[in-house]
Amino acid sequence: MGGTQSLNLAHYHRASLPPNQENNASIKVVSLDEILGVLDRLFATGEGLAKILDSQKKAYEAVSNGGCTLCPVQTLGQPGPPVAHHLQAGQGAQVCIKTGYYKPDEGNSAEEDVFVTKVAGGGGDQPGNVGMLLVFSQRTMKIKTILNDEGILTEVRTAAATVLASELLCDFHSVEKVGIVGTGIQAIWQLRLLNLKFKQLGLPLPEVIVKWAMRPGHKQFQPKKVMTFIQETMGKSACPLDREWAVGGRLSLFQPDGERFRRCRLIHTLTAGRSPQLAPEDLPGDLTGCHLSCVGADAPGKRELPAALVASELHPPTLVCDSLAQSLERGEFQHHPALFRAGRVRELGAVLGAGPDERARLREAFTIFDTSGVATQDVGIAQLVAGLVP
């Protein structure tokens, strides 16, 4: 066996592949700059916003009507069952891996029949986020496209899905103040999508009251961090969608007495907390028409709301999640299994099909939307962006 004679190790492997054009196609690698170019075009028009929201609407409807397959979520870091160790990136570092696909349909094109694996990470000692989306063909199981998004598409689809749910469950026409809990990158994207949604509805931008994320051992009142977010992160941003919030005092600091925050009818919680970030006394005394969208509890053990709000008997909220099965192990409602047994929790995909009368009733109720993110969201945003890359 000396010399340079080939051992033909790939002979049977290559012979087993069906000789079609898709198998021979090269992998398309999409850079972050190309992705940002697509997002710029989408965010520039109301039609682009509609496409983003529609991709998320389809994602949730598929979860509720059996039109998709969601694989178990993998979470690295953020100790808590079943994870036992921190990542070397730091104590708060977390990487999430999600895979899913829509039910195959004979009428689908090759571009539609895909499955997507998303890897997204952040936190710890590293600035910013990391990640990519891998798009595979369902027909050949070979990789078609790599979206090197550095986590941005996860931020976009999360913010879009939250705004989709909030606008369904809350009457934006009556919203004069919005509460934002958290000052991280997701807070920026939430405000960008809210900016576009209020404009799409022909409404003026409301006042936003920003509350910091509370950490164990930290002082509760942290005005410096929030003022940096308001004055530097938003006020001096190169993105006009950010600066528009900072103009005219639309962004303001949560005060210890909480009086102005209690006037918020729409609140988004966006922290990585493992303890409650809000208390019942932070909310309006009359919870009629008040809505909370909770984003941060995306791993086992995390939470942003106290039991006194989620499982309140005095003011029982209408509870909506992205996936009943997934919400039992991650998300805000994981801490309240009795609510699932009692049939108190509904999926967003089912609520999206509500008629006008039911939607009106939902908007008059006290509602909580709990999202930990589902893989079909990644499928939707990946298909949308990949299809618009020149």
Automatic annotation (TrEMBL):
SUPFAM superfamilies according to UniProt:
NAD(P)-binding Rossmann-fold domains
Record's GO cellular component terms: cytoplasm
At the top level of its lineage, which domain of life is listed?
A: Eukaryota
The record's Pfam families line, in alphabetical order, gives:
OCD_Mu_crystall
What InterPro entries does the record point to?
NAD(P)-bd_dom_sf, ODC_Mu_crystall, ODC_N
Q: Which family does it belong to?
A: Belongs to the ornithine cyclodeaminase/mu-crystallin family.
Q: What is this protein called?
A: Ornithine cyclodeaminase
Source organism per UniProt: Heterosigma akashiwo (Chromophytic alga)
